[in-house]
Sequence to fold (612 residues):
Amino acid sequence: MTSPSSPTHPPKRPIRALPPGRSTDAQKDKVTAWFAELRGAICAAFEGLEDALADGPETPELAQAAGRFERTTWDRPEGGGGVMAVMRGRVFEKVGVNVSVVHGEFSPEFRAAVPGAETDPQFWAAGISLVAHMRSPKVPAVHMNTRHIVTSSRWFGGGMDLTPMVSDASDTESFHAAARAACDAHDPAYYPEFKQWADEYFFLPHRNESRGVGGIFYDYLHSGDWEADFAFTREVGQAFLGVYPELVRRHMYEPWTNAEREHQLNRRGRYVEFNLLHDRGTQFGLRTGGNVEAILMSMPPEARWP
Amino acid sequence: MTSPSSPTHPPKRPIRALPPGRSTDAQKDKVTAWFAELRGAICAAFEGLEDALADGPETPELAQAAGRFERTTWDRPEGGGGVMAVMRGRVFEKVGVNVSVVHGEFSPEFRAAVPGAETDPQFWAAGISLVAHMRSPKVPAVHMNTRHIVTSSRWFGGGMDLTPMVSDASDTESFHAAARAACDAHDPAYYPEFKQWADEYFFLPHRNESRGVGGIFYDYLHSGDWEADFAFTREVGQAFLGVYPELVRRHMYEPWTNAEREHQLNRRGRYVEFNLLHDRGTQFGLRTGGNVEAILMSMPPEARWP
Fold:
């Protein structure tokens, strides 16, 4: 989940190389600052939801204190590192928000597949990634990730997708409306393309089923206007921040049954299958010696295969 | 877990082709009968352990009836099928014993990697595979699998490996002693080679840790004496039957703590990681359209990533 990109999924359009000698330092700093800012805003919103559970009816979960994020920094021996923020709360059973800024050289096996790495294996990558597994089966699980990669080319990637445990048409509608609004503010072609990309990506072929109700997924975004691409990537983060806490608030006070909880734990089994069998970010991260704890922070706290 | 072989792991020695026109039907029948016989013996032994729990101290598990295997047959659209036997009991939280006999053609992507399939893609494969996840963290989990593959060559493969949740040197010793005795009865070179193969195979590189305490793993066994190779494969099954129920009996009456149960559920998370990220049989089975339920029968009933 902290991987810079999905090198086995080639770009649809060739990515322009940067002019020789062009410095990208200023933009790297802006991107790095944004991911940290977004992480702060998300963590604050989620901690607020932990507090807000007290405003609802008496439930066993209230016996537990409101959750707070714990941050752990990690260094990547080859260069860079990250901060893993994890909260085990009473609304958020387990949520990880990872920010990483790494740099180094792609190994020979990846060079051919990464745009701009064929000639120069040096890369820089920063990203934020988040997976939330909720205590209540009424509240959907969610994943969000955005990233910026710089090789001898550069691009943005990311997306967000929703995994309800109990299907709710209005949640799906709200989530997609937020994704669409973020896209439409930048390019009317984005939403249809990125929605389809998510539908294709978040699919378990061995089960012939979707992971959830989709969302948007994009990669190799390089319109030629770096500022516009960065603005879109910020907009995806803001859309997430606008919609997901609202969905949590919508359902966090509802009671649930043991059968719904069982169903949630079984659906989480499918989530594990997707992440370990199919998610290119996870496989890439593990194969390239990424931080195991940060990569597997996406695993649910508990899952079942009955 | 029901996959015929691990085509990405090439044989160490070339495998002789069968003489043209040579019928292998009689041997296929013998192998098929053996796997069914072994399945029957294992299921009977495991059901006996379910009953035997009543001979011990009063525990909450005794409120549940002794488990019994339920069998489900499945057909493979391309040819053959199998029988999945599953028991959800009070000693065996979840155990699957699958027997399959399948035939067909290897797809072009696998032909080059499978001995004897380069020239003729037809194959026949039969096997038994078993994974047991135990209710008590004091009782080790176990995996056993043996198989026979026929292409224009033919060979045996299989093994057994133990995954204790609470380490116990004498269990490890008993399990390896049984594996060694099975090997030594056939060839003194087998045990050291097959033990090392298991140590290499049942390893999680991303965690830099072993899945359990190993056992034996062998593949492409083709000594030139088919009867001897078949006898060895039967011996592995008998060794399993001799030692594993004994290990269960050794620990099934012991009490355990919540902390030990938590530890077990966390260790099962690593088991899931191994099976989905690294197990070639699982990946091969899923990629070649094997029976998903049978392949993923190896998943634990419950696992945690705290």
Summary: The beta strands of chain B are 70-75, 80-87, 92-105, 122-134, 141-150, 154-163, 203-204, 209-210, 214-221, 302-304.
